[in-house]
Amino acid sequence: MSEKKRILSGIQPSGVLTIGHLTGALTNWNKMQKEFESFFMIADLHAITQKQEPANLRSWTLDTAAMFLACGIDPETSVMFTQSHVPAHAQLAWVMSSFTGMGEAERMTQFKDKSKKKPDNVNVGLLSYPILMACDILLYQADAVPVGDDQKQHLELTRNLAQRFNHHYSDTFVIPDPYIPEVGARIMSLQEPTAKMSKSDPNQNAVIFLTDDNDTIIRKIKRSVTDSGSEVNVGEGKEGIENLITLLSVSTGKSAKEIIAEYEGEGYGKFKSDVAEAVAAYIAPIREEFKRYREDKDLLINILKKGDEQANKVAFKTLSKVYKKVGFLQY
Ligand code: TRP
Which of 138, 212, 246, 329 has the fewest CB atoms inside 10 Å of its own CB, making it the most exposed? Predict the structure, then answer.
């Protein structure tokens, strides 16, 4: 057994990944994989809780794999796999759903938000989404889970379910800690800066995709929604400018404080165009790497196959323990 602590995280292949995934997840995963035994998952089972065109789902799954690699995930040291290729996820989710209270599931704010946003598709999968997510984590006995703060409540549920099961039977699951990175974790929509940037936003101008070319990135940032003031600073009503400060900070490595000092008395025009140029330069090499990997479908599939196999071994071991403990006849 490896001495290293273990992490697991995942991204849904429900669209092309955005700069928010880069700064909030992938950059961080890349750093963490050196220190932790790492499992990075393409959460395709989760993706179907929203309506998906099958061809898009297939294509986005490969996109996500290519983007993991373009952002520096190393398949030699980390396990990179597709959730639907590891049957234990769905199997454990069934077991754990019998340990989850209806009220407990209904309380999840993401469930409530998604239900409100798409009232015509409030399916049971949406309700059990956090249970499946808990199982993703528990199957691998992960010590830590790097996630955005919007997933904190799901992590709390994961810990509760694990503790409940351990207490009811005997020690089975490691209780995972959330690992929420301090900077760049939250990139907001360019058009509605009080909402998180989302790959499935119907307004493409609100989102910087990691596949956008330089001109597109520059145009989107220049047209981003800010306030009617002129001061490059943070504060009430200045969410748009704050978001641009964050983008400039992640793209250049400068701190928000340095940026605010640098642009004192400058106005928005120059600031916006500097942010636009900096973000374009930051994304360009990733986009090129992505293209290179995405063109090599055989390579992607081979990497995923190897990852699926490694993941299956670990996940099956945990599932077998669970099946035995709950009393499924062993023969
Ligand atoms: N729900 C996560 C998100 O939308 C994706 C996800 C699925 C995940 N399973 C996971 C993240 C397990 C961490 C661990 O961001």
Answer: 329
